Amino acid sequence: MPFPSKFPTYPTKEHFVDYLDAYVSKFGLEPQFNQTVESVAYDHTLGSWRVKTVGLEEISYLSRWLVVATGENSEDVVPAIEGMNDFEGPVLHTSSYKNGEEFSGKNVLVVGCGNSGMEI
Fold this sequence. Notes:
By secondary structure, this protein is α+β, with helices and mostly antiparallel strands. It contains two helices and three strands, in the order αβββα. Among the domains are: about 30-70, no CATH class; about 85-120, no CATH class.
């Protein structure tokens, strides 16, 4: 499902949330929140994955597909870069980035080519 044509070249966070809401509605998805995956195992007999989650209640899922989204980008890992301590401007990880307002009119260097870096 492509972004709506009315979206700017670089959508805001609000645009993206609106897009996700529309995606959920269009495809009839029912996201589950506040659940922790307790176990995952492939059942060779059924050819499916068994996933057990816990949260407000314990839920078991059985599915042919498994997508693992670890949230690794939310853990800021900033490598030591020679000269970084001498830099007088802000150095921040994408997990701390909210919007570009504080950088408006400034020259900015974004290091990294993951999804978050490319979006910024």
